[in-house]
Design brief:
The protein has 121 residues and is mostly helical. It is built from three helices and no strands.
């Protein structure tokens, strides 16, 4: 493995860590439920970059083995399937957080967590 291949391999991990940290910082400093939902989506997007970095192979072909000779390098199809599953999970979580934010705004008139009154049950 040449130096450039090694650098490009680790570049994906560095980008995933950076995107995760940016989303986490946004979640921690968020003062609005919709901002929190967007930052959560950004943070979850870092897992796409991480999974695709794990499954990437330099010089690898698509994992369709009909016309690829035996022993040829191929990208890992399991990681691609996990990435698609991760996208579905993120869409579900994001939808739930947005619905929660809409309901909070409907009942309290604000999306600021500090201004919410205590829950009455």
């Amino acid at each position: 493995m040449s130096g450039l291949e090694w650098l490009m391999g680790w570049m994906g991990y560095a980008v995933a860590i950076w995107v995760f940290a940016a989303g986490l910082y946004g979640i921690v400093t968020s003062r609005n439920w919709m901002h929190l939902a967007i930052c959560l989506a950004v943070m979850q997007s870092s897992t796409y970059v991480l999974l695709l970095s794990i499954g990437y192979r330099t010089g690898g072909a698509a994992p369709v083995f009909a016309d690829i000779p035996v022993g040829a390098r191929a990208v890992d199809p399991v990681v691609q399937a996990l990435t698609l599953t991760d996208i579905v999970v993120e869409a579900t979580v994001l939808a739930l957080v947005v619905v929660l934010a809409v309901q909070i705004h409907k009942h309290s008139g604000t999306l600021d967590p500090d201004k919410l009154r205590e829950l009455e049950g």
